[in-house]
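Researcher: Next entry in the queue.
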Amino acid sequence: MRMAYLSICATFKDEAPYIPEWIEFHRLVGVEHFFLYDNLSTDGNREVLEPWVGAGLVTLSDCSIPFEQGGQNWAYADALGRARGRARWLAFIDLDEFLFSPGGAPLPDVLKDYEQHPGIVVNWQVYGSSGLTTRPNGLVIESFLTRAMTQWVRNRRVKSIVDPARALRPIGPHFFEYVDGALAVTENHEPVRVIERRAWARRIRRGLSRLPLIQTDPYAVRDSSVKHVSVERLRLNHYAVRSRREFEQKTARHGSSRMAPRYFTYHDRNEVHDPALTVYASQVRALIAAEAQ
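Model: Structure for this entry, 293 residues:
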């Protein structure tokens, strides 16, 4: 396998209906290879993935460790080892996240400006349900069109794009440790330090999040030292809930239904109409149809 300039690593569980759109979208924006880890799925995803696995575009592996027991960290560490010598950049995102450059440039063109750094962090833009209660007929990127305000506190969350040769290990799903203590940067080349939250601070934030006039993130375990959300060059659309029914089904599969109502309400943000990715919809649909033939 020749070295890919940009690859993606993702873990997933029972996401088969969403896989074709997610893969073809990222191929359109310049991703060349995918390291995917199946975390105990039961939905026939291997049949869905077969065209891309057969074409050598997807490396599919099993992750039998549940997420709550460190499965995602194990998969990320495994992917780092696999990608060394096979990928110049490796992005670590989920199947409900879509990575792109808002200016429309292919991701490899944008990433060339960051080759002196060991990693780049990319801010979320969290999308809500757009008022939908059941799964729509259209693609995710054309059906969920409303999101939170750009500077909403939860949009300070980041995901990482790393140089596998200089990344040592994951620090949770959002950050990485790098060789010689080097730091990743934002899209504005600002160094990013990881701030650990103590358990008592997380409990306080969870309580404060119930107050309507206070902006706080009750879910983050670690913070970025850079608080300003910047998504002009690189951006991660995070479809955190999709429709209400889809979210309920997902949390039931993951055994987390107890917290689901509060999580849904917190993330169902629809203040800004932002159809940024609809320009890709017709191309994505055509590519999916071609793979199905």
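Model: The mean pLDDT is 92.
Researcher: Noted, moving on.
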